[in-house]
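Technical annex, item 7. During the second reporting period the consortium partners agreed on a shared format for inverse folding records so that results from different sites could be compared directly. Each record opens with the tokenized structure and is followed by the designed sequence. A conforming record, contributed by the partner at site C, is shown below for reference.
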């Protein structure tokens, strides 16, 4: 059985999902895919079900009722992947803002010693294509802010292109992860570091979606700003066993 699974949350991604699935399955390594769909009214899940006939026992689908947040989708996917004994568990967007070819680089980083690898937009300058400057600045300075509050030197704290070794997700107590939006990515990285896991950043080029609609909002960034302070304060009173 392949040791790697790519978790892709979806909501109204009919323009992208088939191309993404076929691209991942065309890579020179045998990845499995788990789609977590939050009741897409555009029929995203119908496309996935159709493709399951083409990719049996490689493409999996979990359907949830309505939008429940990015964080809860990933937590559900992480638990599913742990139960099915995958050793390398990936996060990736459906909209091609993350280049599927980079999955192999993220996996290689974990094979070579990292416990967590991050597809980082900011490890070598700012590698973002087609974003408005306001959003680039918001994202970049969000990571600056998190580094200041936490003292942890991750350059791209808000990145959503990740590879985790299974033992990381088994250790971090997923039920204690509180955030469901943008801050979820921050909390997962922070918690992994607090448990003593090795985190490596791999430079990527992030390209904004060309099809479908962005899910980003100012409210998501507000959760991150206020949530980081609360997370840092709460961590003072919490023990983090070594992984």
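Designed sequence (site C submission):
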């Amino acid at each position: 059985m392949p040791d790697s699974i790519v978790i892709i949350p979806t909501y109204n991604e009919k323009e992208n999902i088939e191309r993404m699935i076929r691209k991942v399955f065309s890579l020179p390594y045998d990845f499995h895919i788990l789609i977590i769909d939050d009741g897409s009214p555009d029929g995203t899940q119908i496309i996935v079900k159709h493709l399951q006939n083409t990719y049996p026992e490689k493409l999996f689908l979990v359907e949830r009722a309505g939008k429940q947040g990015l964080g809860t989708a990933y937590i559900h996917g992480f638990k599913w992947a742990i139960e099915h004994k995958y050793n390398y568990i990936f996060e990736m967007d459906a909209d091609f803002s993350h280049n599927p070819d980079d999955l192999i680089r993220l996996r290689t980083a974990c094979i070579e010693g990292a416990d967590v690898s991050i597809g980082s937009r900011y490890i070598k300058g700012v590698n973002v294509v087609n974003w408005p400057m306001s959003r680039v600045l918001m994202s970049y300075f969000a990571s600056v802010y998190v580094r200041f509050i936490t003292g942890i030197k991750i350059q791209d704290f808000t990145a959503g292109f990740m590879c985790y070794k299974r033992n990381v997700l088994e250790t971090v107590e997923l039920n204690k992860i509180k955030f469901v939006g943008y801050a979820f990515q921050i909390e997962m990285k922070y918690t992994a570091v607090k448990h003593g896991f090795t985190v490596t950043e791999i430079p990527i080029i992030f390209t904004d979606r060309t099809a479908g609609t962005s899910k980003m909002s100012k409210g998501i960034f507000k959760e991150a700003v206020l949530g980081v302070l609360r997370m840092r304060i709460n961590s003072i009173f919490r023990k983090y066993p070594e992984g």
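The mean pLDDT is 89. The radius of gyration is 17 Å. All partners now use this format for quarterly exchanges.
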